[in-house]
Specification:
By secondary structure, this protein is of the alpha+beta class. It is built from 21 helices and 16 strands.
Length: about 625
């Protein structure tokens, strides 16, 4: 096998000086390869040596983009700094026939009349006042990695064969050096990145330990966790629940956190589109959107429990320097928040189980027991305070009924009930109904009947379809009262089912105090029996369509309620006593009952009027002036 060696002199027309000058210029560049310089500085050195080698005014350097394959401007040697302009240029576009020729032939191309030749982009030639331009490919091995463009502005320049050959030799040497430099730069960047990541990981390990210690500390809640996150991230934060209501906030400088999850901002397209990217795998950066009320960037991270977003963490960028570390803190913090939420849920579940058992024992008629009262005390519920039992049921069997706890929470949320940091309502499902024990407000507004309005608001808030009935007991003080109170409520529910007409929806609530002792009369008679009793005792006096009968019944009712005093009755009606006596005589004649002289007749008449009053009240009729 014969090997032919071509000397540099032979390769360049026997002109060793060309090769030597190019090598000398490159040698000055090669000494920098082992130095800690930026890529731009290294490329500037190449341009400086190229201009000195050819004794020419200008040169610009382009490198091939590894991703897109285009040649992007990097640096230039000019009378002033034009790097920013050069970096915006791309060589080899469709209109750039000059560069495309270099790429196709992989040979240098000289254009002596650049402003009239059709191959270069003539607008650029005119802009830079280029008279002649020489383009040289930068080839390392078989790879064309870049381009050098030489020009002397508007000054004449010979671009001799020797100069062209020196430029090509130098360009190829420089190409090899750039490959080494970029490789070293990438390696250095990789090592720097690894070092930075290791530092972040060590920092995150410390952060994770700090956050975990906060959770394990006795008495910790979400406010403590938010404070720890704000301290570690050096920026304020807020924790939202699944419905985006605020659970806890840690401020810095006293100003509240402006969160993208607050109010209408979250639904604005510019913010909503960013929030849609939110996943448990990676927090998202939202904002700033000053026009939408979000003046600063925020990191938003989701807290997942059971494949659903149970909460959200928002860190607001007050420092203006949040980055990878703060995102990592947010992601780690979500795990800590999840642990706290799970612990809180378990605590609430255990508390609900205890409260359900307590309610069931009380309404079954539990006797006073120190253990029972201690369990109630642990729930913050003082059985010696004034309470009422409320039983809510559907009218018919099998009809839908909201869960007892849902009704209790909706009732407790109304502003009509006391708070004072203690629970206001305990609830359980008992005998196919929702049974509640409700703490009564203090003062003159604390009657059981006052619960009707907040109970109606609570049922409306649940948007329940179908009719519900509710019985409200008289006030309870002490554990021994709750069994009796529950019985009162079940009696009332029976009265409502028997003596009221069904409705399509809504709540019908009646309190024991409204009915009084007459509820026993209604409870012991069905509708037909009650109608017969009222007819036997009152007769035509019960005819509400006859004004004369109504006046007689009103007179008898007021007479009985005033202890059979004709004087008080006359004063109450604004008529003469003789008129009262005449009306009583007529009523006795119509009913066959001696209202004035017979005590048994007066008792039956009083019971009948009570029954009629309650019947009309339950049916929505007018209430008598006095009963």
């Amino acid at each position: 096998m014969t090997t032919t060696t071509v000397s540099p002199e032979a390769a360049f027309g026997g002109q060793p000086a060309v090769y030597r000058e190019a090598v000398d210029a490159f040698a000055q560049i090669a000494t920098v390869l082992t130095s800690e310089v930026t890529l731009d500085s290294f490329l500037h050195l190449i341009c400086d040596k190229a201009c000195a080698l050819l004794d020419i005014a200008h040169v610009s350097l382009y490198l091939r983009d590894a991703k897109g394959g285009q040649f992007q401007g990097q640096v230039a040697r000019y009378e002033y700094d034009v790097d920013d302009i050069i970096k915006s240029y791309v060589a080899g576009v469709a209109a750039d026939g000059f560069t495309r020729e270099i790429l196709e032939t992989r040979q240098p191309v000289l254009i002596k009349d650049a402003q009239s030749d059709p191959r270069p982009v003539r607008a650029q030639m005119r802009r830079w006042n280029v008279d002649a331009i020489f383009g040289v490919p930068m080839i390392a091995g078989d790879d064309l990695i870049g381009l050098l463009y030489f020009d002397n502005g508007g000054e004449a320049y010979p671009f001799s064969r020797t100069q062209q050959e020196m430029a090509q030799v130098f360009a190829n040497f420089a190409a090899s050096a750039i490959v080494q430099a970029t490789g070293r730069s990438r390696l250095q960047a990789s090592l720097t990145s690894i070092s930075r990541q290791n530092k972040v990981l060590r920092h995150l390990s410390t952060i994770n330990d700090q956050l975990t210690s906060v959770v394990l500390r006795s008495g910790t809640d979400l406010s403590d966790i938010a404070a720890a996150i704000a301290e570690l991230a050096r920026n304020p934060c807020v924790i939202h629940d699944a419905s985006r209501a605020r659970l806890a906030e840690s401020r810095i400088g006293g100003d509240p956190v402006i969160s993208p999850l607050d109010g209408p901002a979250a639904s604005r397209p510019a913010i909503a589109s960013q929030l849609r990217l939110l996943s448990t795998a990676k927090p998202v950066t939202v904002g700033p959107c000053p026009g939408l009320g979000l003046p600063r960037r925020c990191i938003v991270a989701a807290v997942e429990l059971g494949n659903e977003h149970a909460a959200y963490l928002v860190i607001e960028d007050r420092s203006g320097a949040m980055g990878t570390l703060e995102s990592a803190i947010a992601q780690r913090a979500t795990s800590v928040i999840a642990l706290e939420l799970v612990a809180a849920r378990r605590g609430r579940d255990a508390e609900l189980d205890t409260s359900r058992t307590l309610v069931a024992e009380l309404v079954r008629g539990a006797r006073p027991d120190p253990v029972l009262e201690e369990r109630a005390k642990r729930l913050g519920f003082d059985l010696r305070s004034r309470h009422a039992v409320v039983v809510v049921s559907a009218r018919g069997d099998g009809e839908p009924l909201p869960a007892a706890q849902e009704i209790a929470e909706a009732l407790a949320a109304t502003k009509n009930l006391p708070a004072h940091g203690r629970p206001t309502v305990l609830a359980t499902e008992f005998e196919r109904a929702a049974t509640l024990i409700v703490r009564l407000p203090e003062g003159r507004h604390g009657s059981p009947e006052s619960l009707k309005e907040p109970l109606g608001l609570a049922i409306n808030a649940l948007t329940h379809d179908g009719e519900l009935l509710a019985g409200i007991s008289s006030a309870c003080i002490g554990p021994e009262c709750y069994g009796r109170a529950h019985f009162e409520c079940t009696q009332i529910l029976g009265l409502l089912r028997n003596h009221t007409r069904p409705a399509e929806a809504g709540l019908t609530a009646v309190s024991s105090d409204e009915l009084g002792a007459s509820r026993l009369l209604l409870a012991s008679h069905g509708p037909a029996q009650l109608d017969a009793f009222l007819h036997d005792v009152l007769g035509d006096l019960a005819n509400a369509d006859d004004p004369k009968m109504t006046a007689l019944l009103e007179t008898v009712s007021l007479y009985l309620s005033n202890g059979s005093s004709t004087g008080k009755t006359a004063a109450g009606l604004g008529i003469h006593e003789n008129s009262v006596r005449n009306r009583l005589t007529r009523a006795s004649a119509l009913t066959g009952m001696d209202i004035v002289s017979d005590g048994d007749a007066r008792l039956q008449m009083q019971l009948a009027i009570h029954g009629l009053h309650l019947r009309r009240q339950l049916a929505g009729g007018e209430r008598l002036r006095a009963v």
